[in-house]
Write a structure and sequence with these properties.
globular, about 400 residues, five-stranded mixed beta sheet, seven-stranded antiparallel beta sheet, 9 helices, alpha+beta
Length: about 400
């Protein structure tokens, strides 16, 4: 962790722990999350109706209407008031950042339940032993959790979320860390290419990749999918099969997140400037099925490519780099991906032969095939990459 540096920007850190809830507390958490989901969807629908009429709706009037709605609908009082207000704040920020009609609904089947307690004065944490602690939360009382790491600072907020069959608490902590104004090695530059054979390849020849699912888990997952297809909707066996599938996908997600975090930490620790291609992952992984009037072509091939892209976690690696760069003073910039695999970063000359060394891959590996690339970077002591001059 970076020590406090004079003049640096304060950086808040996150601490995540697994909760040990009683049956009553687990039911309460689920109820709180359902109420928050309903408030989110109702608030989003209200905002969309206002936009259709050419008017605006923001946080302040919605918060006032929420207080009135509690008198008409007593079930809204089950959740803590601060959690409901925070839901409206999150909705307001999402609409401002992405647009009212691009914000998604929170589906009961697909949304992972979560809610936040923003008031640190209502949160108390105590350590009970070497591996056990407890936190006091509004309307939940004292809740035990696994003390897997020290807090290391003052708590600012707490977020409860469910993943699979378990609930977790995430504390936003002020550990007095500040982002350094300059990187320890200010003249270092690296370009990163994200592909489907190797998750990330740097311009200095480092290949970063790993398998996120084992062979046994792959076979197990396919058998569970076959079992799921034979179950009846709403049956107990179907819920059991979905829970077993979620166990495997949860492991894969955790491994992918760990890989992205470790890779990003190593890259930003050695480089003051990290260059990425400006890839629109959501657009690139869209379905090619088309419509009834204009059906798509090579739909199966495109579906396989989409799965390969999503499996490598391109967007998650980008987020991990941006997050890790705060602690080292690195800069993460994105450049136009056109011809980045073929353009010489020193002189700008474009040729297919510039990709030959990259396509060969490291010894003992198959040649890479994937989306684009970042051309080899020049000596950072001599000149920065020309692509950065266009930013």
């Amino acid at each position: 962790m970076i020590n406090q540096l004079e003049g640096g920007v304060p950086v808040l850190s996150g601490r995540r722990y697994r909760l040990e809830l009683t049956a009553e507390q687990a039911a309460q958490c689920q109820e709180f999350a359902d109420v928050c989901r309903s408030v989110w969807n109702t608030g989003l629908e209200q905002r969309r109706e206002y936009r259709r009429r050419g008017a605006w709706m923001n946080y302040a009037p919605q918060c006032a209407e929420l207080a009135d709605a509690k008198r008409e609908h007593p079930w809204l009082k089950a959740a803590p008031s601060h959690a409901l207000q925070q839901t409206l704040k999150d909705l307001d920020r999402a609409c401002r950042d992405h647009g009212t009609f691009k914000v998604r609904w929170r589906s009961k089947a697909r949304w992972s339940p979560s809610f936040r307690f923003p008031d640190a004065k209502q949160i108390s944490v105590e350590r009970l032993g070497r591996k056990c602690g407890r936190v006091k939360l509004p309307k939940l009382g004292w809740v035990n959790f696994r003390w897997s790491r020290p807090l290391g600072g003052e708590i600012r907020s707490a977020t409860l979320s469910r993943k699979g069959a378990h609930w977790f608490v995430s504390f936003l902590v002020d550990d007095q860390a500040h982002a350094p104004e300059h990187h320890a090695m200010p003249n270092t530059v690296v370009g990163i290419d994200r592909g489907v054979k190797s998750a990330a390849v740097t311009s200095n020849g480092d290949f970063h990749d790993r398998e996120f699912i084992t062979a046994w888990e792959r076979v197990r997952y396919r058998r569970l999918q076959q079992r799921l297809a034979r179950t009846k909707p709403g049956s107990a066996n179907r819920h059991k099969t979905i829970a077993a599938l979620n166990v495997i996908t949860g492991r894969v997600t955790d491994r992918r997140g760990d890989f992205c975090a470790q890779t990003a930490s190593r890259i930003v620790a050695k480089n003051a400037l990290v260059v990425l291609e400006d890839l629109r992952t959501r657009n690139m992984t869209a379905s090619a099925a088309g419509t009834l009037a204009e059906p798509g072509r090579r739909v199966a091939q495109k579906r396989g490519l989409n799965r390969a892209i999503l499996d490598k976690g391109w967007h998650r690696l980008e987020l991990a780099l941006t997050n890790a760069a705060r602690y080292t003073g690195s800069r993460v910039v994105k450049v136009n991906p056109a011809f980045t695999s073929q353009r010489c970063s020193a002189c700008g000359f474009i040729t297919d032969n510039n990709r030959a060394a990259e396509a060969a891959g490291p010894p003992g590996r198959n040649p890479r095939s994937g989306r684009g690339g970042v051309a080899a970077m020049p000596d950072p002591l001599l000149t920065p990459p020309p692509a950065l001059d266009q930013q």
